[in-house]
């Protein structure tokens, strides 16, 4: 605490997103304010963002919600079933 060093967030991918990207979890530096939507483009994740659910700290959130140091960001693909 009290450090002026940039923070970081944890990014998690689930199901088909994890398989397509080839990774499940990463720490990502948070050097300036950003959103899930901006990170989706930066990470060049597969598919369209509008079909993906976003969770911040295990709660569904809007893709344009600002991320904070220490947050956990999860991208969840559409889930079908019956």
Set out the fold topology.
Blueprint: E1 7-13, H1 15-21, E2 25-30, H2 36-43, E3 53-56, E4 59-61, E5 72-76
Describe it for me?
- The N and C termini lie far apart (about 45 Å).
- This protein has about 80 residues and is of the alpha+beta class.
- Residues about 1-5 have low confidence and may be disordered.
- A 5-stranded mixed sheet has the order 2-1-5-3-4.
- The protein has a single domain (about 5-75), classed as Ubiquitin-like (UB roll).
- The chain is about 20% helix and about 30% strand.
- It has helices spanning about 15-20, 35-45; strands at about 5-15, 25-30, 55, 60, 70-75.
Q: Top keywords for this entry?
A:
single chain, 82 residues, alpha+beta, Ubiquitin-like (UB roll), 5-stranded mixed sheet, disordered N terminus
Q: Brief description of this entry?
A:
By secondary structure, the protein is an alpha+beta fold.
- Rough outline: globular
Helix tally equals: 2
Task: Give the percentage of residues in beta strands.
Answer: 25-35%
| CATH homologous superfamily classification | Beta-grasp domain
Mean pLDDT: 88
Distance between the termini: 47 Å
Largest sheet, spatial ordering of strands: 2-1-5-3-4
Percent range of helical residues: 10-25%
Written as H for each helix and E for each strand, in order along the chain, the element string is EHEHEEE
| Count of individual domains | 1
């Amino acid at each position: 605490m009290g450090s002026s060093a940039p923070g970081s967030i944890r990014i998690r991918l689930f199901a088909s997103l994890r398989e397509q990207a080839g990774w499940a979890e990463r720490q990502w530096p948070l050097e300036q304010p950003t959103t899930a939507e901006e990170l989706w483009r930066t990470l060049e994740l597969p598919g369209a963002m509008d079909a993906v659910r976003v969770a911040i700290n295990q709660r569904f959130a809007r893709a344009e919600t600002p991320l904070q140091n220490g947050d956990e960001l999860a991208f969840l693909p559409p889930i079908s079933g019956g």
